[in-house]
Specification:
- With 398 residues, the protein is of the alpha/beta class.
- It folds into two domains: 137 residues, Aspartate Aminotransferase, domain 1 (Alpha-Beta Complex), CATH 3.90.1150; 245 residues, Aspartate Aminotransferase, domain 2 (3-Layer(aba) Sandwich), CATH 3.40.640.
- It has 13 helices and twelve strands.
- The strands form two sheets. A seven-stranded mixed β-sheet has the order 2-8-7-6-5-3-4, sandwiched between helices. A five-stranded mixed β-sheet has the order 1-11-12-10-9, with helices on one face.
- Helix 4 links the parallel strand 3 and strand 4.
- Helix 10 runs antiparallel to helix 13.
- It starts with 8 loop residues before the first strand and ends with a helix.
């Protein structure tokens, strides 16, 4: 017997819940792609995307998912044979490194594991041990979607400045943009990549490379840039189609316009604060569950945790058992233990992830926690009591 009929809830770390207003704005006939409203709306996106990223630089828009945006950024900042240093705190930094290798870039990795942030002292030692001009770029995630580790970008920039490294600082904000505080200009980020399907609340399909003038000048020194990935015509288009190197992602543009309007109405600082409060409620609930049994937060240090996604350890195959019960019996889908394999758990069956990004609020988080607790009971997983009370205590004081 299942009681899952009704409104389902996709609580994975992207694609995130799509607001009805976004869906309605996309549910229109195909627009004119040569003149008129679509062009005006596209041009209006740039300053508002910069508002969300706290940036004053350039933005290239691509029809691509996050993996495509990795390649777009790489294609404009390095050439085959160049060296980059990747600071890894989870699966997605390694994914960006793999992408770089496949286009001929030489990659060194500093791996900080799966449950802690980048240690700038280790980074400092590494950079001082190498020729100052070796690395053309430092690649890292702001939030790694697999581990839910959040990195201190400003500290990394400070370190690079102190040793006078000429490397560009490139940051993946695919999971974090419009969820966790991000200050592109103030933190000294040269290149940032993002996509529309998480904090921006739009179906997957478009991505962005934000870049400053320093990165723009670096691109000019490259021997070649592929025609499709070249960001120059996208930020200085003579004709509308050059924004996208072809036909525009018409309906995504309408959806993104609505999503950005929603973020601006709430105000980005309040959007960040909402995500912070909801995250603390989730962490409080998990702490109560962990008082008995083996369930625990993957990231121990609260300052290293994302406000967009939470990775949770249950051990054994209990993560997969819980996910399957929730999906088949309750109408709730939570994230798999992506990239969380261990010698005794090669498929990451002992982990799950909660996505709490974008269009989420108090009643959704309380529903998530209540349903997960029901699932823990259903699969016979030992856990502590009082989780909902702990979450409620935090949410009732806002």
């Amino acid at each position: 017997m299942s009681v899952s009929s009704g409104q389902t809830y996709l609580a994975i770390p992207g694609p995130s819940v799509i607001p009805e207003a976004v869906l309605r704005s996309m549910h229109i006939a195909s627009p004119n792609i040569y003149e008129g409203e679509l062009i005006e709306i596209t041009e209006s996106l740039i300053p508002d995307l910069n508002y969300v990223a706290r940036s004053s630089g350039h933005i290239a828009i691509y029809i691509a998912n996050g993996h495509g945006i990795w390649e777009a950024a790489l294609s404009n900042m390095v050439s085959a044979g160049d060296h980059v240093l990747v600071l890894a705190t989870g699966r997605f930094a390694h994914g960006w490194a793999e992408m770089a290798r496949k286009i001929g870039v030489l990659v060194d990795i500093l791996d900080f594991g799966k449950n802690r942030a980048v240690d700038v002292n280790v980074l400092n030692e590494k950079l001082k041990s190498e020729p100052k001009t070796k690395y053309k770029a430092i690649l890292m995630t702001h939030v790694d979607t697999s581990t839910s580790v959040k990195n201190d970008i400003a500290s990394v920039r400070k370190n690079l400045d102190e040793i006078k490294s000429p490397a560009l600082l490139a940051v993946d904000c695919i999971a974090s943009l419009a969820c966790d505080r991000f200050e592109m200009d103030d933190w000294g980020v040269d290149i940032m990549v993002a996509a529309c399907q998480k904090g921006l609340m739009v179906p997957p399909g478009i991505g962005f490379v934000f870049f400053n003038n320093r990165a723009k000048e670096r691109q000019k020194s490259l021997t070649s840039v592929s025609s499709y990935w070249d960001w120059e015509p996208r930020v200085n288009p003579r004709l509308y189609y050059e924004y996208f190197c072809g036909t525009a992602p018409t309906h995504h543009i309408y959806g993104l316009r609505t999503a950005l309007d929603m973020i601006k109405r709430e105000e980005i600082e309040k959007t960040w604060k909402r995500h912070e409060i909801l995250s603390r409620a989730i962490w409080a609930a998990i702490d109560r569950w962990s008082s008995e049994g083996d369930i625990s937060l993957n990231v121990k240090n609260p300052s290293d945790r994302s406000h967009a996604v939470t990775s949770i350890r249950l051990g054994g195959k209990n993560g997969t058992r819980l996910r399957q019960w929730l999906q088949t019996k309750s109408g709730l889908t939570i994230g798999i233990g992506l990239g969380m394999s261990e010698p005794e758990d090669p498929h990451g069956d002992g982990f799950v992830r909660f996505g709490h990004m974008g269009h989420v609020n108090t009643q959704m988080v309380m529903a998530l926690l209540g349903t997960v607790e029901t699932g823990l009971r259903a699969i016979g997983y030992k856990h502590g009591n009082g989780a909902l009370e702990a979450a409620s205590e935090i949410l009732s004081t806002i």
